[in-house]
Design goal:
Layout (H helix, E strand, L loop, with lengths): L2 E4 L2 H5 L31 H6 L4 E5 L4 H4 L11 H9 L12 E8 L8 H24 L3 E5 L6 H12 L3 E6 L17 H7 L3 E9 L6 H8 L4 E5 H6 L4 H9 L6 E6 L18 H10 L6 E5 L14 H14 L10
Parallel strand pairs: 2-3, 2-4, 4-9, 5-6, 5-8, 6-7, 8-9
Antiparallel strand pairs: 1-3
Helix pairs in contact: 4-12, 5-6, 6-7, 10-11, 11-12
């Protein structure tokens, strides 16, 4: 059974390395239902609304969708390091923990049967749990930030936001891959956006940094003949004299809200992911894109990263990498400067 663990203040504090003279972000973030003597065991919209936080952080530690797509497992290992790194950032005038509610994490059992069909059935079960929670958050007007797991979770996230907003939403995906594989294959990490389009939840879809080497003839043809899909290929970015941030703005131009931002960590060089790459964006490229952007997104989804992959590879910096991206996303719409005395 898939369940959701709601974090308490003690859960949050267990991740923090406290030091005299410093206040860590985790000491200031909000938790669900701090106003009640007895903790709620299920998520209620009314309780979420009481929080003054604008952003709601949740984790989906799973790699079922990746393995259902014949990928290398390990995407379930990024959430905890990311949470620890994020909570140990400094509370300061640039980043205020009171604006963030750390809701909790999905508890997802490892499938006993690793048959592809069974894995894909398990992804469908996860879809139902994820979209419901995202819808509840969306109904409060707060912005969900979802970390960990495969890109399969894009579908239930898009579905949840769309149902909450009662309209199709638009999405910009920073990714080396389009994840538009056929829905007839069954659910996995490679067809989240296909499902979102087919089921009427995704309107305009933009892919930033798609690698030509991983785009099949049928995919290129599909993109070229679909007015609602546009891709800016990474290969063309390399050839262009226009900087990455400007190209991002051009692709974003015209997209109306509701608007989601997806970041697949396999788009960043040397980050451990299910499809790690030696050629792609640098972390600073992505940070520059986020920090320079004035648009307000309706959600952020960071996925496919791993601290330990199924083949034994490790990435000791994955937590800090994700923490940078989360904090940049929160700071970008309302940059704060320290006034000089």
């Amino acid at each position: 059974m898939i369940s959701f663990k709601i974090f308490s203040q003690d859960d949050i504090l267990s991740y923090i390395s406290q030091r005299d003279g410093e206040t860590k972000l985790g000491e200031k973030v909000q938790v669900y239902c701090p106003f009640e003597e007895k903790k709620e065991k299920t998520i209620a919209i009314e309780v979420l609304k009481r929080s003054t936080a604008k952003f709601v952080l949740i984790g989906i530690p799973e790699d079922i969708g990746v393995r259902a797509n014949y990928g290398i497992g390990g995407a379930d290992t990024a959430w905890r390091p990311a949470l620890k790194a994020f909570l140990n950032l400094q509370q300061n005038p640039f980043l205020d923990g009171d604006n963030i509610l750390v809701l909790g994490e999905f508890e997802i059992p490892k499938p006993i049967d690793v048959n592809i069909n069974e894995l894909r059935n398990a992804v469908e079960q996860l879809d139902n749990s994820v979209y419901w929670l995202i819808e509840q958050i969306g109904l409060t007007g707060k912005i969900p930030i979802i970390i960990g797991g495969g890109h399969n979770n894009a579908y239930p996230i898009i579905k949840g936001v769309s149902l909450a907003k009662k309209v199709k939403i638009n999405v910009l995906n920073i990714d080396a891959h389009a994840d538009l594989r056929h829905t007839k294959e069954g659910r996995h990490s490679g067809n989240g956006f296909s499902y979102a389009i087919e089921n009427g939840f995704l309107d305009q879809y933009r892919i930033f940094g798609l690698h030509q080497n991983y785009a099949s003839n049928s995919l290129v043809d599909y993109i070229n003949h679909n007015d609602n899909i546009q891709a800016l290929y990474f290969d063309d970015l390399l050839r262009s004299d226009t900087n990455t941030q400007k190209q991002f703005e051009m692709l974003l131009d015209g997209l109306k809200s509701p608007l989601g931002l997806e970041i697949d960590l396999d788009s960043i060089v040397h980050v451990l992911a299910s499809a790690a790459t030696p050629s792609g964006f640098s972390l600073n490229d992505i940070r520059n894109i986020i920090l320079s952007n004035a648009r307000c997104f309706d959600y952020l989804h960071i996925c496919e990263g791993a601290s330990i992959s199924e083949n034994g590879s490790t990435d000791l910096l994955i937590g800090k990498t994700i923490a940078y991206l989360i904090s940049d996303f929160i700071k970008a719409p309302h940059p704060r400067n320290v006034a000089r005395p």
